[in-house]
Amino acid sequence: MADLLVGLYRKDYIEGKKASEDVKIVRALSPNSDAIIAFVEKNFSKGWASEVKAALYKPNPTCFVAFYEGKIVGFSAYDATAKGYFGPIGVDETLRGKNIGKALLFAALEGMYHDGYGYGIIGGVNENVAPFYQKTCGAIVINLEGNVYDRFVRGLY
């Protein structure tokens, strides 16, 4: 697993990317926190739910949510595990391929840009997923030893 770096000043990567018309992506609000956390825990993991909590429990949440037919179908976050880090991100398995993940990625990257970041780090990316980020937002591999997840204590969930 490697960290990736994406330049946020490349506005051509982060503006105007949308999911299908019937999917709405919004910055999360606190009244939706419990439902978002439940969605993440049910469809992904407790670890990701914990990261999403960190993104939700800020005065200006750093979590975005995709809604389809009135239901939560995806999420993305940044500044959850560490400042300047994008992730996690997830989309309901039955709705993949509708550009929801791409739109959630761009919503978060644009949020990072507007928060003053020049670059974002996509942390702990699996080698099967790295090509998606490289193609979609021009991310490059950071070739340094170690990362923020080295502090992660395994076996707590």
From TrEMBL:
<dbReference type="InterPro" id="IPR000182">
    <property type="entry name" value="GNAT_dom"/>
</dbReference>
<dbReference type="GO" id="GO:0016747">
    <property type="term" value="F:acyltransferase activity, transferring groups other than amino-acyl groups"/>
</dbReference>
<feature type="domain" description="N-acetyltransferase">
    <location>
        <begin position="24"/>
        <end position="157"/>
    </location>
</feature>
<protein>
    <recommendedName>
        <fullName>N-acetyltransferase domain-containing protein</fullName>
    </recommendedName>
</protein>
<dbReference type="Pfam" id="PF00583">
    <property type="entry name" value="Acetyltransf_1"/>
</dbReference>
<dbReference type="InterPro" id="IPR016181">
    <property type="entry name" value="Acyl_CoA_acyltransferase"/>
</dbReference>
